[in-house]
Amino acid sequence: MTIPIDVEVGASALGAAEVTIATLAAFAPKIDVYVDATADPLLLDSVWTVYAVPGAGGTATPLASATLRNIGAGLRLLAGVDGAGDTVVLKARSVRGVTAAVTAALIGWDPNAQTTNVTDKLSAVLGGGVASGVVNQVVATGLAWHPSVDAFVSIAPASVAGSRWAIRAVIAGFSAPVEVGQAIYVGGGNQKIVSVEGGASSWEIVVSTPQGAIGASAASIVGRSRAGAVPVAAGGLSLVGAYAQRTAIAGAAPVTGTRYGNTDRFGGVAIWTGAAWQPELTPGILGTAPPPANDAGWVDINWSGAGATSLVQQGDAIFLSDFGGFAAAENVRGVVRALPAPPWTVEVAFLPTIIQANNSMAIGLLLRESGSGKMKRFAAFSAAGAIAITEQDLNSATSAAAGSLFAISSAYEPNLMWFTIINTGATGAGNYQFLQSQDGRNYQPALGTQGNNVFLVADQVGIGVQGYGTAGAGLWLGHFKVTTP
Predict the structure, then answer these.
(1) Which residues pair with 445 in a beta bridge?
(2) 182: DSSP letter
(3) What would the mean pLDDT of 252-281 be, rounded to a whole number?
(4) 352, 417 contact by CB (below 8 A)
(5) Nearest CA-CA partner of 5 in 36, 26, 35
(6) Maximum Cα–Cα distance across the chain
(7) What are the chain's domains?
(8) 178-184 and 164-170: which strand pairing?
(9) Which pLDDT score, from 0 to 100, does residue 56 have?
(10) What's the half-sphere exposure (Cβ side, CA atoms, 13 Å) at 218?
(11) What is the rounded distance in angstroms from the CA atom of residue 364 to the CA atom of residue 352?
(12) What is the pLDDT of residues 171-227, one digit of tens each?
């Protein structure tokens, strides 16, 4: 692929037999499929499949398939499918009868095509605010395609919370732009409110105000093309084996993009980036493996005796646990490591183990001030018969600060949890931002923001668990990334 993106749009009526909609003439590392779904009821449950064709005369092999469950508006049906073959073909068929002509786009994109980092930005000021009841008012449009896009908003402090901000893909030949990511503004000052990845002709940001008008506002949409952003290259191998045999099977320096499926219980899938193995946490999302359990940078916090607290290696991930039993009071066990000077962003993806939902158990991310021992805990927290996401200030690992639990946002779901804390480094309120995601792509404010020097000035970050009584707690950490501008 000689250009970072290839958008191929086609249209056809669908019948019982598959028909070809669009074709990519060259290999693409990543593939998206968009459908400009009309209100034709015969489109419901139509099946869309992406095939790889390995050279002239090769047999088409399915890469991914999806069923259309919604009609009446455009949608992204497949996202971030790993490319293969010399050419790629999109085909579709109807299960309800012959449809009217439907338009679809097959997009091949290369998140790793740039040799240097490139960014573009579009900004707009809504000086008069936005009236109540507005739906998808375009704020900024026409941003050139980049594989990663962020939306930033700044809204008047007195505005009603609940405005909805979305990033939409503009596809040439489609009747309207297609929403690919959205988030609800819940207050708290300037925010990076939503991020997306994928292919498009161009990008735009829109706002809706279902909860009421908002005051003077501003928004920016920033596209990022980063050298080596998602290094999945053509020619990489697909290998399987035990985690301990990975180097023996794949070699010390395999082809960039090689995928290794660990057959061990805790192994998962890893991709060789050209410098290291990194975990593929969900399809299309390459994580950053945390420092090993035996890394000297980890500092123990309040470990219990007799080996009850442990930090062990599980494939490319690490697992922190404590099953030594706890009293009703605070008793955080954890590990932390040094933070750089702000501004910084910390992103983690973890699986929590919470045994009881009616006691003060907590599992999540820690910010710590090394001099005083004070901590902020951003965690899945169980109390009063429910499990939620909270931020709590702690005087120490064994003492909660009075009245510090300032918000409880959404219910905890038992799957991979993505937490991000941002410190902008600016003076005044709003420097600590707490964000949460269920898919690693679309983030929303989980709690709110706090000033840089509210309660503590963090110089360490890590993970912590807190059990209750005889019930222990554990945290599987698959992704740990600290970045600075």
Answers:
(1) 435
(2) E
(3) 79
(4) yes
(5) 26
(6) 71
(7) 5-109 (2.60.120.380), 118-225 (2.60.120.380), 238-286 (no CATH), 299-483 (2.60.120.200)
(8) antiparallel
(9) 65
(10) 7
(11) 8
(12) 988 999 999 999 998 876 788 899 999 999 899 999 999 988 998 888 999 888 765
The mean pLDDT of 127-142, rounded to a whole number, is 92
Contact (Cβ atoms closer than 8 angstroms) between residue 340 and residue 482:
yes
With beta carbons less than 8 A apart as the criterion, state whether 219 and 152 touch.
Answer: yes
Percentage, residues of the chain above pLDDT 90? 38
Query: Pick from 80, 102, 70: which is nearest to 29 by CA?
Result: 80
Calpha distance 368→462 (Å, rounded):
8
DSSP letter (8 states) at residue 423: E
Strand 191-197: give its sheet, edge to edge: 118-126, 217-225, 148-155, 191-197
The mean of the pLDDT values for the chain is 83
Closest CA to 92 of 152, 135, 42, 134: 42
Which helix (H) or strand (E) segment holds residue 248: the answer is helix 246-250
Residues 6+ apart with CB under 8 A from 159: 129, 213, 214, 215, 217
Distance (Å, whole) CA 359 – CA 230: 41
Tell me the C-alpha distance between 190 and 192, whole Å.
Answer: 7
Tokens of 201: 């002709």
For the purposes of burial, counting CB atoms within 10 Å of the CB of 298, is it exposed (0-12), middle (13-18) or buried (19 or more)? buried
List phi, psi (to 5°) of 209: -130, 70
Are the C-beta atoms of residues 271 and 250 closer than 8 Å to each other? no
- Phi and psi for 344 in degrees, rounded to 5? -150, 165
Number of residues in the chain: 485
Cα distances (Å, whole numbers) of residue 63 to 52, 58, 186: 6, 14, 39
Name every residue whose Cβ is closer than 8 Å to that of residue 137 and which is 6 or more positions away in sequence.
130, 206, 207, 208
Amino acid (one-letter) located at 382: S
Q: Can the peptide bond before residue 283 be classed as cis, meaning omega within 30 degrees of 0?
A: no
Each residue's pLDDT tens digit, 460-472: 999 998 877 666 7
Query: Is the link from the previous residue into 292 a cis peptide, with omega within 30 of 0?
Result: no
- Which phi and psi angles does 248 have, rounded to 5°? -65, -35
Q: Closest Cα partner for 205 from 152, 252, 246?
A: 152
- CA 290 from chain center: how many Å? 16
- Cα dist. 165→54, 170, 255, 353, 447 in Å? 41, 16, 40, 33, 17
3-class SS at 297?
coil
List the strands of the sheet with 19-24, edge to edge: 19-24, 87-93, 47-53, 61-67
CA distances 135 to 163, 219, 376, Å, are: 10, 16, 38
Tokens 């697992």 found at:
319
